[in-house]
Amino acid sequence: MEIDGVSLADDPKRAKTHLGYLPEVPPLYGELTVDEYLAFCARLHHVPKAEQANAVARAKQACGLTDMASRLISNLSKGYQQRVGIAQAIVHAPEVVILDEPTVGLDPIQIREIRKLIRELGDRHSVILSSHILPEVQSVCDRVMIIHHGQVVYTGTVEDATRAQSEAAIVGFAAPPTVQALQAVPGIAGVEALDATHFSVRYAKGVDPRVALAQAAAAHGWQLNELRPVTKTLEERFVELTTGEEEHANEQREAA
Questions:
Q1: Which of 7, 110, 4, 6 is nearest to 64 (CA)?
Q2: Which domains does the chain have, with CATH numbers?
């Protein structure tokens, strides 16, 4: 594994200089001001003395801390303390920033602010977010890796994770057919009327009937005006992937 071209196995000390890290409990010193603490962190990361002031200023600006420079960290709110924790992770301008449960213990407004900050950091750094709060992962991240019992069970984009395995769609018509007529379209295994013009259609296994559905609507004058797949939340996909793995393992043990 390499970080910015430096092997983590061959030269771990140099490779780690390209990392910024925020643990679940930020490593803060409450008796220091924000400026004092970030200057201390810059020295720890071997930022050249002539560049330390600019490095601290950039980190404060990125994290919305400019007006808090002279405040004692112990007097800051939990949300601002979390911002200070993120600032120390980026003060040396690392290529990769690792954030571990960055919104734990924050109120809803603080959570929204930190999530916005994380998305902004993604424009300048590669950000790795470790979290059990899957709605947060879905709202902030572009890619996701799901690990279960030490094994990777999914890796890919968040969009693909929530779109994958879609087996149903919501369809709407201006001149709706009967349930029986819709059921007769090839590839549709089940139909449920949601209201006078909308239906939930379940696909037959391994079949995507959307083209056949559009053709049937045109042929019969149903005036199709909505067709959207039923997607799953990342939380639903996580449960599906992890419980599926456990059920498979249990079946194998029982068979043995």
A1: 110
A2: 17-141 (3.40.50.300), 167-229 (3.30.70)
Burial of 256 (0-12, 13-18, 19+ CB in 10 A): exposed
pLDDT digits (tens, 9 = 90+) for 218-241: 999 999 999 988 877 888 888 888
Q: Residue 230 phi/psi, 5° resolution?
A: -85, 110
Q: How far apart are CA 32 and CA 215, in angstroms?
A: 69
pLDDT tens string 30-52:
999 999 999 999 999 999 999 99
Measured between alpha carbons, how far is 155 from 102 in angstroms, rounded to an integer?
A: 21
